[in-house]
Amino acid sequence: TFVIAAAVGEAAAVRIAYHVGTGNVSLIQWNAKAAFVLGSIVMLFSATLLWQIPEHIVGWFIDVNDPRNTLTFEIAITLTSIAAVFQFFDGVQVVAAWALRGLKDTFVPMWIASMGYWLFGLGGGYLAGFVFGYGAEGIWWGMAIGLTTTAIMLSYRLYRLMRAERLRARMAAGIA
């Protein structure tokens, strides 16, 4: 399902870049909002499935009738529930990142993503998984925290750049 959100983001980048070229601020804003809503709906649906029916999804990959898989099944159910959280935010951040690329904004989003993935994601996963002893769950919560942080920061940057007066000023300066 992430690929769907990525495709929505890529399409948004193309549409936004096109309208940057035409100078149509309202269509830039409309395309960014439409992509954000569509990507969020797709990922919310996916996250809901992971949250509501993790047993069925895990059952596609693990023989639930084999008693040797009991512990693996229990761990997978827990991780699938955590994956539901980062599934949504992963989709949001990829749409925001691509929309920003359509605005020719790549340097700041690169730093936002680096900080979100490495500092919050990897750092949080290390702390939770190894220092605080939560193991695989802690590592996955670290990923969820990293993706959530990145999604919030990229979305905020997109929101700030989408304000009409800022967008017009950037376009007049040849930045977006």
Keywords:
176 residues; 7 helices; elongated; single chain; mainly alpha
Helix count, DSSP H or I runs of 4 or more residues:
7
Structural class: mainly alpha
Number of strands: 0
Assess the beta-strand content as a share of residues.
under 5%
Order of helices and strands: HHHHHHH
Large-scale geometry: elongated
Mean of all residue-level pLDDT scores? 94
* Sheet with most strands: none
* Quaternary structure classification: single chain
Give the proportion of residues in helices: over 70%
| Low-confidence sequence ranges | none
Describe the structure.
The chain is mostly helical. The chain is built from seven helices and no strands. It has helices at 2-22, 25-52, 54-59, 70-102, 107-131, 135-162, 164-172. Helix 2 packs antiparallel against helix 4 (70-102) and helix 5 (107-131) packs antiparallel against helix 6. The longest helix has 33 residues, at 70-102. The protein is elongated, with a radius of gyration of 19 Å.
